Fold these 4 entries.
Entry 1:
Amino acid sequence: MPLLGGGIHRRLLMWGLGLFGIALTAVIVAGYSYTSRQIEQDAAQLQAEIASVTADRIHTFVRRKIERFSDLAAAVSLYGLGSKEQQLLTSLLVKNDGSFTDVSIIDARGMEVVKVSDRRVYFRSDLSDQSRSAKFNKAIKGENYISRVYTSDQAQPYVTVAIPLWGTAQSVVGVVSAEADLSFLWEAIGEIRFGTAGYAYLIDEQGNLIAHKDPLLVLKKMNLRQADGVQKFLRNPTRLDPSPARKGRGLLDRPVLSTYAPVPELGWAVILEEPLEAALANVEILRRYALALLAISLFVGAVVIAWVSSKMAGPIRELHEGAEIIGSGNLDYRVNIETGDEIEWLGEEFNKMAAELKVLYATLEQKVKDKTAELEQANSELEQMAFNLRVNLERIQALHEINLAATSTLDLKGLLNLLLEKIDRLLPYSFSTVRLWNRVTEELEPVACRNLDEEEWKRETGRGRSGISRAAFETKMPVRIDNLQKDPRTKDLDFFRKKGMTSFLGLPLIAKGEALGVIGFYTRGVIGFSREERPFSNEEVDFLSTLASQAAIAIHNSQLYEETKRANEVKTQFLSVMSHELRTPLNVIMGYAGIMKDGMLGEVNPEQEKSMGKVMRQTNDLLAMITSILEVTKMEAGATLVERQEVYLTDFLNSIKSLHSLPLDKDVTLHWDYPSDLPVLMTDSGKLKQILYSLINNAIKFTERGQVTLSARHLPEAKTVEFQVKDTGIGIKKELLSVIFERFRQADSSETRNYGGVGLGLYIVKQFTDLLGGKVEVESEPSKGSTFTVTIPALLYSTTLTPSGQRTSTTVSPTPRGV
């Protein structure tokens, strides 16, 4: 207490130094404590946000892939199992979405009927039995299946997804399965950086490491139950981390700050860790700076206070008194200090401040009002901008979803229902209708609606009652009616009034310049079913017009698909009927021509016999063409069956050799090259015979002189039998080799066209070879000849002859399943 007494200079010195030291110490300690605590809180908040965002990103990606895959299942369910359409749809999914590497369709017995991959080409022999797999047994019960994550040799993460394939009677008729590449987890995890050394990794529900920026750690298949962050997740697998950035042991058994966030529905978790020494490095630096700042500030403060206190005692009292006077409200008071130093300047500035304070005080209230108004205006503009941005984003997202929905199906009714369902999300308080133009009745027929009873709508607004929609159709321009209750164009339609509709927007559905119909939108008022007008804005008209353009393209594609489908059905039926009806008269012609040629109806001269022979050959060729057309028709109708039986290949080839003859007008020899100990196959002998007959006849037809050779050999290592038909004929150009196995296709040049035919022989060869589980290949060079190679798999027996002439058979290998 004695130290605090004495004159003002002494007291200023002691009080100033003491208070300054206490205040500075308190400020520095408080600042250090607050900053330290804030650093830890910021680290916890940052880790929690990063972990949550990463988990949501992983969950959203997987969920979208499952939705995309569900859309594929809905699309392939429209076609028969193993059909070309299913093959095409699965191939499009693999091609357009790189995350799906292998997709297969499994029937109700567990057999794969379609299998597509972006890494290899699957043949029928590659299809396998999945009846015992976990994915099949769960999905066939009507439940979705997602496997645990597994990794490749390069640490790429994969997951197997399987969903049920529903039939028309709401029964499961099969399973669609896919292998999904989750390589994006590397990016999602590897890109995470926070602090100076923070990192992240992904674990499954057992604590196994499935994704890390270092693939070598993933390849070690580490289990991280010992890490504190993993232990917290395993104790609370469905909740966010209640204590983020808690100290503990980490992935490499070092002190860390760790946080986790579960990935919803998948049972995984994102773990974030930051080494403790790195996380708290700033706190240690702050502590050193605080101590240094305290020491320096105390020293400087002591010197300054000691010097200033001697100069400030009197003037300060005067300034203090002046401040009290001005503070009491007397803004006209001025201090008078003449010290010739800074105190005097301070007095002058004090007087200036008092004068300015008087002026500012007079205008302060108005300025506060003006600034408040400006801030409110700016805030209003920002809110409007945010609202417009949100609306535009929602519309863009809606257009994207509608475009995906439109490409997911070609069924017109299903397509329209999907479109209206998506539109209903944008206009929840409205009705929507679709009318399409019927070229036969020349009417806009009601076909689909939303939020209305469809039968009532069609009954009330059916034939002849589409006036306002027809106006949009005929002019190909939007029709907008703000008040349906009063507009004269709707006076005869009480249906609108009964439903509380207030406004109407009709948009023509135009594709490739042609109006297909009209999509209509009706509002129900501002709130609920009130009768207040709620007209469509110009922005809404522009947006819905864009939506109508997308819908028109999808409807046009669907209509083209339906027309093509009907045309194919008519074509197939026509070919089947005409081919069947032509066979009977041709058989009669061939029979009578044969009787006349053999002289059973009277003696014939050589010229007549020669003519009858030409008639029989031409008629036989025509009958072969008709038979080919019938066979193709059966295949397209799915009526071709494989009837397997034991085929002794040597006897089989001997019978073909004995029945085959060469035309007399060609200088061609037929050579047979096959051993006598060929094995016994379990296959369809009729289809194999037709394959070889077609190839031999084709070779003879296109060879004017030279040799046609049929060879056969057994390939035990490949478990196949190979047949080759080689000729020295006109050959085939290289650019045409890819199309000769298609229907009604030939090497279309003036030279080959002289040989006739409808181009079905090689098509049937290819289809029959595929049915037998084999493959057909061709090598050819113009003017040098062609070689067709047919390979048939599934060896079943090896046959030898005993000295007594009896055959003995030994099983070699079973027929591969799925063939």
Note: The two ends are 108 Å apart (CA to CA).
Entry 2:
Amino acid sequence: MYKPFLILLFFFSYCRINAAPIELVTPHHKVTIVIDKAGSRLDSICAQLLAEDIQRVTGYLPAVIYDLNLAKGNVIIIGTAGSEILSRIKGPSDRSLKGTWERYALRILNNPTKTIQKALVGVFSISEKIGISPWYWWADVHPAVKKQLIIDVKYHTSPSPSVKYRGIFINDEDWGLQPWAAKTFERETGDIGPKTYAKVFELLLRLKANLIWPAMHPSTKPFYSYPGNKKMAADYDIVVGSSHAEPMLRNNVGEWDEKKMGHFNYVTNRQGVYNYWESRVKESSANNVIYTIGMRGVHDSGMEGVKDSKDAIPLLQNIFNDQRGLMQKYIQKDAAEIPQVFTIYKEVLDIYEAGLPVPDDVTLVWPDDNYGYIQRLNSKAEKERHGGSGVYYHASYWGRPHDYLWLSTTHPALIREEMTKAYQAEARNLWVVNAGDIKPGEYNLQLFTDMAYDITPFLKSEYSATHLQNWVAGIFGAGKAPAISGLLWKYYQLAFERKPEFMGWSQTEPTTQTKLTAYNHFYYGDQAQQRVDAYNDIETRAKTIGKTVHSYRRDAYYQLVQYPVTGASLMNKKFLYHDKAGLYAAQSRLSARSYQKLSEDAYKEIVKETDYYNNALAAGKWKYMMSFHPRDLPVYQRPKFDSIPSKTQAQWLVLPEGYKSNDGRRSFTLPKFDAWNRQRYFLDVYLSKAITTTLNISASDDWIKVSADQITLTGEGLKSQHRLWIEIDWTKAPRKVAGGQVIIKDASTQVAITVSANNSPIPLLHNFKGAISSDSYLTINAAGYSAVSNTASAEWKVISQLGSSGKSMETFTDSPAININDTLALRSSAALTYDFYTLKEADANFRIYTLPTHPLNKEYEMRYAVSIDNSPPQLFDIKTFGRSEEWKQNVLSNSAVRSISNKHLTAGKHRITFYLIDPGVILDRIFIDLGNAQDYYGGVSEHL
């Protein structure tokens, strides 16, 4: 008989008492844990885990007993609402808990029996209070040892969780969890079996989650292959479901044998498929499960036997009827009372949108696009469905356009943005996150489950960074939390611009080879070097802080902080140094060979760090868990070089920032300086031959500042080059457009670099509040708006923590989309305005960057309108379809780009205005090319 899932966490007592401390372990008291003799297996499991938690902190293992009459002194009582043990405790019952979903109460009771002085009712909330992290085992977050343990407990009754079913999908386990379990932790099964799932289920309980979609790749035997798996889920009261590709709790990859059973085709082999589903329903009928209904192909592919959505609809209706009939037959309940989900993933969305009717009691599960952007959510009608809806979200993924299975880098602010949007769209019945191998996704899983349990604080976008800092503080202490959470935030921010796995600019399915990155090495202050510097900074900080972490937490620190930060840094250096090796070789730089070595060294360090993770960390506990080369894709391979420095007659050369030619022997010009942007530009001086030389540097005028007046170059590695920085002393510069030179020379050769600086008085700029262009371009971050004009039903809002600059602007409306053919209505919509000033007349190209979000539901598109200098609004739509090439580039870069070309601008003031049409558009930045800008990748700093 199917048993409805009512209570997961057993922290209940229902008596009136004031907040008070209770002594758990002191010289005077040693706590005892009491559970109901008639209680569930989970009562016993939780009691034992709590006892072990107390032992981890104090060294004392409390006794776990079943007879309240034998208890004396201070006790912890564990029971469920209505249990016999709680009925014997003095005090009124807490009726507010009866019939509710997963609520708990914490109480301290004074003298509840003659022999008990104080009774505390609770389990894992107590563990957290005494310093046990949910990650104590999975990330070796060992607690601080204490001689005595006294905790202060306030009278507390929890609300029900924000989301009913909350859990993880173990997926793509081939390179971590499965080999680790098979070869180290669970050798008796040689697989992910009951012993491993016991640890997974314990983690879920501690994360306040209640649902598992089990591992299902060919490397792992199906969940139901081991009877102990099903029993373990029952013992821990974990709800078992299955992924979008596994209807009726069947693992098609591991359980459907085409040779014996025929094709997985409900048109040609209905009885064979029906029998296959029937046996699993029989087997699972007494368990706590959620059935995935519908049908897809065996290998996460489209359904066999249909040509298109029109063919699929009647077939799926028949499949629904047969599946629900099986449930009613063997569970002996009306199908409407049995938890079921229909996951609208990939091609299933097209079938659903074509008009597929889904039974009203079934939960619709909306997936993201595999890269963190939810494809769509409820319409007004769908919000009213009895079965409600949920979300299937990815923090790890195998597939097109590129996997990200190594490091966990999905930005916390993006997860918060998408999942709060889902919650507000009434998708609250089920949330599942694709957790990959669980490790190294610890923080993303913590964040996801915390949001699912209590969404309230996350409704404010500022809470993203606060949550990370709080999590870090709980593990490494409040004193270290700002520094550690700060470097982790930068880690996520850098990966939001480009994930480590995407740094090869390659793709998969089909697999392409790596190539040069799109970062500019010669303009915008050297984007590539800026990224290397940023990673070097957090890598150095991570290692420095790691040396100060208490010894009992260093294994945890390495797993949660140092390895992911270091790995991401090294992967970026591997590719960016590889870029420099090739590009510098073409410029005859002797240093090209040094960059080859730096690239190779970065690869070797990734191998070394991963070897430490697998073989030395936590005394080898995680052997086989970490792979830095899932699927052996090209991005993970050792770098290859096919170029050596080109030959030149010159012994040394100079190249200014922005220079594109390889001819280094004539005079050059730096980009123009101006007093409003106060730029600094670089000059690269380098050897092309293995000599030693001293060069003198001077400026023609005292208002030109050079970072060095003499340099010595040698043929030793990176000492063969030097980067000079040029700035202007604006207090000394003439009040006009002035010219000068930087001269670099030795005994026989001189190179002069032209400098132009605009210090002309422009009265209109005296009180100007907008952005001011350089001579060649202008960049504006979304939150740097001049004015915002919202309406009663539509608004642009600042989203903190999200976007290239850390803030973005999002459109919100509950109203129907604006009629784009009604210019008056469009101009009356919520508007966002940016004032800017150009220093010269130019034909400008505008590039508008938004995040690649999808329409909120089928009632909307992804449109906004843009007007420049009050011109007629120009409409843009960033909606993408399927796995188009545009969508692929969007998710790889976390940006969707739209352009306005050849817009003639006079020198002077201008204005660009954005009008709201559809909700969910997130504006990130604007780039205006005034004719001289070069290619770039990601965000270009506003400070030129």
Note: The radius of gyration is 31 Å.
Entry 3:
Amino acid sequence: MGEEPAQAARLPRRRVWARALLLGALSCPVFAPPATAQDSEFLTVKLGGDQTIREIAQKYLGDPDLWTEILRASELKSITELRPGTVLKLPATAISTANKALVDASGQIQIANQAGAQVFAQENIGKAISLHDEALLRRVKSDWGGTRNLATLSFGEATVALEKSQAARDRAAEALVTDRNGQVEGQRPQDLGWRGLTLQTTLVEEERVRTLSDSTAQITFRDASRLRLNANSNAVIQKLRYDPLKKSEVAKVSLVEGDFYALLSSPSTRASFNVDVPRVNASIDSGSFWVRNDNDGAKFTNYDDGKVEVTAAGQSVTLGRNEGTVVQSGLAPREKMAVLTAPDLSAPRDDLTVFNRGPRLVWNSVPGAVGYWVEIGGDQEFSRMVASRFGLEQAQFESGPLPPGEYFWRIAALDSFGLPGARSAIWRFSVVIDNDAPFLSIGTPERGAILRDATVKVSGESEPGATVTLFGRSLTVAPNGRFETTIKAAPGSNKIEIVAIDPAGNETRSERSFVYMPDERSVVSFDDDIPSTGPKHFLSAVETISIGGTTTANAQLQIRLGKKAVASAASDATGRFRVNVPLGAAANRFEVAVTAPSGFTSSDEFSVTVDKASPNIVLDAPPPSLTANQDFTLRGRTKPGARLALNGREIANRNGRFEETIELKTGANVIELSASDAAGNVRTEKWQVRLDRDPPILVRSRAAPASGGRPVLIVEIEAEDASGLANIAPFKVSAGGQILTGHLRYNRSAKNYQGTIVVPAGALQTAALSEVELADDAGNKKTFEIR
């Protein structure tokens, strides 16, 4: 569908990319001493004492935001490695030549497109655009050589496309598929079925074209007129004629179902264009219109000063600019009506750069609208459609992830008849991949400074446009990236953290520590992880205890027992200290004297009790070595307050009692219980319980009469079990209609059960073993019937 004249005249503008801008319209930076040539593509420069890396990037590369490239070229991981006198490596020549090649390629692509390359040299211009896009990605990754090479190849492909287009301008050509999204299919008169249509497919008369769900296709005619089939549409190119002498073209399209919009060339070069739907005919003089056909009938809207005449059932309606009509099936067209006004776009604002994602599009609701139609194109004329969604209920749309590049979007409101209204203004946004953390430098306070004034100035520099916070509070950043504020310092060691976040969401954090040291009493704060029974009352399991904590920075500490000094230490620049103190008795009381750098001495006290006794572990009953019960409860007592861990898992100590149920696994189970007290004493006990829930396995059985003619039946059973077999196995024998019972004994040397039973006289030959019960040492039993 067409744009307003002011929009159509809007020329594409070059995008200034974050982290990827072309340096100063290809003007080479002027390199000044003290930089020296290192090779053909790099310069070296020594960082001065009053310089920042951003200043060097501005001076030698023409852009302060290219400081990250200097770090990479200099093989430095972070700006924290920079010191006055650091020799930096500047990729100056590589950047300028790569940027010039990019601009040259972009210009050649634009010239080729103006010459008709999208129609006459689609493959070449597509390759040129693809190479250019890949060169931009290489540039984001600072691959300057790869950027230059790909841009040069792009320029070459664009040149070939330009030459082909110029040569084809004087030759006749059929309609072409110049853009497609999703699944697009075609069927010529001689085809038995549908075939997939690719870009640059030539369409002939009587050829059918259809789009499936979430699919669109653009058909371009020789005079550069364009027809965009939307999703679930089916059209026939009924007539396509070109007169080389008059250089005129006649086209007629039949819309079987679905919808399309057309953007025809200017009236001086426009082809004769007619639209036909079942029982409806439209004569087109407009350069921008939309048509829909479905089971309910046809719909037409006109967006141009040229007329659209709709004829059905012997009656006609002529549509002017921003007018539409509905033709119900078998009826005459309704009176023409004004379509809805264009929506006002809201977000993202025009020309906004979106980082590492696609944006959420938002526009203002239009009174009377029942839905909206959003289009996202890869160019300002929407000849390369990225997304087209018809019938959105809300005045917003999530674009989803998009590749890096430049995009255009517009909206039309849908009225209750389903007619799309006037198109909105066309806004542009860019998607840029930016994963580089922003520049951040802290100037004051200096690292490790000792300050006497509680009011401290905090200043530094970041990237222009970055959000800088101190303790979560936003700071004002000047256009040159500098910031400054004041804070109130606390006595002793202080640490500030400044966070810089660029528009892409990348983050740099920088910390700075300093000491505020008024002449006042030093406070000693002991570490919380020292074993203790209360404030400043510590525990130890050995004759020496390690005491750590914080106090005045750079102070001297002395530990005294009575009047005798037993240990000494010094706090570091952050006030941290650690000292090993010998313990001469079970109970010890010490004084810690702290002498600040100013010479002022203050003291504090702490106590240490020596406790070497490990907590006891006493079970109510020892665990069984073998059991058939899956759940086992471990009960016992230990030292109140001791920390208990059963197989590495902490369990409750209820005033010296513990009780925990363990779910055993088949086979050997190791049970380990450890108890530790606050002093660090540990006692560990281990047991092993084997769980066997499987009954014995009957391997074979035998019953035979005893020799010597006695009425005795000898019974033998062979069985297996992982836990060991029980000594006795009850069995039954059937003899002469009677059931006789007996017990077998396990012969461990023979590894089988053996026994005899006396049977009634005359029943010996028919006597047979009928049942045996086997049990294992774990208590598992099973009765086997023997036939």
Note: The helical segments are 5-8, 53-61, 67-73, 92-114, 117-120, 122-140, 144-168.
Entry 4:
Amino acid sequence: MIDPRDMEHCVAAIRHGSRSFHAASKLLPRSLRDPALALYAFCRLADDAVDLQPNKSEAVLRLQERLDMAYAGRPQNAPADRAFAAIIADFEMPRALPEALLEGLAWDAMGRRYSTLSELRAYSARVASAVGAMMCVLMRVRDGDALARACDLGVAMQLTNIARDVGEDAREGRLYLPLEWFDEAGIEPEDFLAAPHPSTQMAGMLHRLLREADDLYARSEAGVAALPRACRPGIYAARHVYAGIGHQVRGAGYDSVTRRAMTSTRQKLGWLSLAMLRAGATYVMPRSAMIYARPLPECAFLVDAAAARAPQRGDWSDTLYATMAQLKARDTGRGFALIDGDAGDRYRA
């Protein structure tokens, strides 16, 4: 069980660091709310540990050590680490899931860019769908179809975040939109990073990204009915709150460069109310055939890992080890080349 003092720290971290999830969590049953907030606190800690540090490679390698310690039952003496170690023990959290998140953070540390939408989905699977799969584990849901829809929701939410943060990311030298989209729009990525500005071409890319997100939000809804009834309002709330961010981007004329889409407290309350109504409707609505849609190829390894019911590494983790080896080499100043078997791209330190 999570120590109440550690839980208080986790709740405070989410209240200040992720207002959208904190709002949605109010609709979760207490038995799920505390471990969910603790899980998000650990994930938030991991994200901030990389994003806010000048030496990002060292930060990721340190996170790997903290994850090893948590799975060994000897977490670092910090509230989020102790709470996450309790989650591992109580829910048999498959190790491949937080390791996938760690790999996504490593890709961030390397400044990796994505040539295609599929590669961007692979990144989103790691930094967002992995969290969705872990949420299913907290709900004691190990059904492959439900897990696939949770992963759809994770990718949709991450694509929405990317659409919202284009300008902010560009000013930090980060670029997530597929490079082939820049080619099609006739924009040089380096030129955009040097002088970010809204344009018709950029609006077209954001429209395309949010349309992909909307398709995945629609796919994800079929999985809600497969969740425990008490959990459905909170998941619907997360879906509507994050989709609402996309609506704000559209309302701003797809200008995410000079402005950042924000949602008001009144809007959040409206979406929470809608979530309650929709969750009630799922009690009587027939099950959608969309529940049986195959998982996105980029998320299939997460579905397999979460369904396995064992806190173990999977075969996919060889790619994580290769990524960590690359980070270690960068950290010690040794140059090398790595072929990424998933993306098929060559990256040089």
Note: The longest strand covers residues 337-339.
